Amino acid sequence: MSKLDSETHAALALTFIPGIGPNKAKNLIAFCGSAESIFREKKSTLLKIPDIGPHTAKALQSTEVYFQRADREMEFIKRFNIGVHFYYQDHYPQRLKQCDDSPVILFSKGSADLNAPRCISVVGTRSATSYGKQLVLELLKSLQPFQPLVVSGLAYGVDIHAHRACLQLGLPTVACLAHGLDRIYPPTHHETAKEMLEFGGLLTEFPSMTNPDRELFPSRNRIIAGLSECTIVVETDSKGGSIITANLANSYGRDVFAYPGRVFDRHSKGCNDLIRSNTAAILTDPEEIIDCLSWSPEKRKTPAQMVLFSEFSTEEQIIVGLLREKRRLPLDKISHLSSLPLPRVSTLLLELEFKGVVKSLPGMMYDLLDSLTFEV
């Protein structure tokens, strides 16, 4: 077995051990240096690793059954030419890597560039109306010149219409799945999934023989949100996967947009709720996405605005310094990191907005204007 295969084998075995989620696995790999090294460590050493208790340490000492499961997965990967992406590899999706709960390992099939410079997710209800389908098509037609990678979930309704519109328009598209790559769910979308392999692909964190159980779909949704620069909600009720995806994207500091709808239409209730709660920005024209993400060359040519750091008050300097270092922070996080009261931070941010230094984003998020440069 080659060095790469042996590390893949060990990483797979690690993910099969019950109780070891993404964060524990990352801690173990960071502490030990590789997945292989974890299984050579003494129990006393493992217990020194943060978040690793006696039960987990014991499980890491008795791994024969997990390595046997990894053997079977290795055979599946090689037989069907499955792509494997570990979070510490360069070809792992870098936007997703920025999310604390990103998977340790991903499996892919197809030709998609998961690190495409432009990437959006389009999600919505499983029972899309003709209006929603039209919105999807018109949205993607408007974005076609920029050739973004379009991510969705292959589900009924908005998802499948987004994938099919991409195929019609020549846009690369990826479906994030809540099961292994040995099946397609729902089965009626098998032909679309097959066509997507030529100009996009399929992606999942779940190994083969994983059923599309209900509880796995929220986990899948975090990958849809994390892969993308922004998430666009077309139509949705007040509950469901689209709302979960939008809230996750918002928590990751990504832009979220929602198309508004009629107040008595249940397919628009979720979108209207997202807009009202400031979780999503209202979307009425695709140009708003192009402007927000600075895709237009004209937008990128905006001359830099020079700002003297010394012109700010001490409290303003603290907030500007945090935003320069962290970028995109929620209001409560700025208050926590600055040790300033929340009402005071809110006032300071408003003043910095008036000065043309800070911009407010959906979900009570704040960032510095992209065109700013600072002189100390």
Summed up:
The protein has 18 helices and 14 strands. It is of the alpha/beta class. Helix 8 (130-143) runs parallel beside helix 9 (158-169), helix 11 (217-227) packs across helix 12 (241-251) and helix 17 (331-338) packs across helix 18.
Description:
By secondary structure, the protein is α/β, with parallel strands linked by helices. The protein is 45% helix and 15% strand. The strands form three sheets. It has a nine-stranded mixed sheet, with helices on both faces. The longest helix is centred in the first third of the chain and has 16 residues, at 64-79. Residues 299-304 have low confidence and may be disordered.
Structural class: alpha/beta
Shape: globular
Give me the number of helical elements.
18
Number of strands: 14
| Largest β-sheet summary | 9 strands, mixed
Output mean pLDDT. Answer: 90
Across the major sheet, the strand order is: 1-2-6-5-4-3-7-8-9
**How much helical structure, as a percent, in the residues?**
40-55%
Helix/strand layout:
Layout: H1 3-16, H2 22-32, H3 35-38, H4 43-46, H5 54-59, H6 64-79, E1 83-86, H7 94-97, E2 105-110, E3 119-123, H8 130-143, E4 149-152, H9 158-169, E5 173-176, H10 190-196, E6 200-204, H11 217-227, E7 230-233, H12 241-251, E8 255-258, H13 266-276, E9 281-282, H14 287-292, H15 297-300, E10 305-308, H16 314-326, E11 329-330, H17 331-338, H18 342-354, E12 358-361, E13 365-368, E14 372-375
Parallel strand pairs: 3-4, 3-7, 4-5, 5-6, 7-8, 8-9, 10-14
Antiparallel strand pairs: 1-2, 2-6, 11-13, 12-13
